[in-house]
Amino acid sequence: LFLIVSSLAAAGPARQGRPVCDADPSPPVSWYGISKREGELAVARHWKGPWIAVRPGVVYGPGDRGLFEYFRMAARGWVPVPVRQARVQILGVDQVSLAIARAASRRDLGGITRFLCDPEPVRLGELAGLIARLPRRPARLIGIPSAAVRLLGLVETAVETVTGRSQPFNADKAKEILAGDWLCDSAPLRRELDLPA
């Protein structure tokens, strides 16, 4: 069994606030999403045996560079909030690991693409507020206009070009942040793998 760990980015954001389902078309909005989608298609076309593609939403935990930056900023006294009302679904790396381990032994599920995330979405403003309250001295929430998000993304991409080192935030990530809600229906995979709620 070939198990490819893809991403919700391969499917793109929610459609008019409705979570993306397995049967929906997959129009990614970033180069990262395009690369993940191309990986899925390559496996589906060329792998001769059974395969499963798992698309996690936002993953947090040890080794994560994206959300970890939020915690570092909170420790410095401020947390940026780019799109306060946008909703995302996040999931701990322990839950992702459990799903991958269970899926890897399920040859009977071959040929499917499934989403993996916590069923309950959270608004970015709420998530930022929770992180801001973690330090001993709570951090300030700083609203960031969309134009500033785009500009900062371009600056970070320029830094990547000069240094040759990838950044947790860049122009590609700015596109994803500004794309709206990132919601998916993870119920099918949760049922199939008997994952805890």
Could you explain how this protein is built, in words?
This protein is 40% helix and 17% strand. Strand 1 (2-5), helix 1 (31-46) and strand 2 (51-56) form a beta-alpha-beta unit. It has helices spanning 31-46, 66-76, 93-103, 124-132, 146-163, 171-177, 187-193, and strands at residues 2-5, 51-56, 58-60, 78-81, 87-88, 90-92, 112-116, 122-123, 140-143. It has 197 residues and is an alpha/beta fold. The protein is globular and about 50 Å long. The protein is built from seven helices and nine strands.
Low-confidence stretches: none
Helix content: 40-55%
Mean pLDDT: 94
Order of helices and strands: EHEEHEEEHEEHEHHH
User: What is the end-to-end distance?
Assistant: 26 Å
Structural class: alpha/beta
Strand neighbour order, sheet with most strands: 1-2-7
What fraction strand?
Answer: 15-25%
- The 3D shape can be described as globular
Work out the helix count.
7
Number-wise, the strands total: 9
Q: Using only CA atoms, what is the Rg?
A: 17 Å
For the sheet with most strands, the description reads: 3 strands, parallel
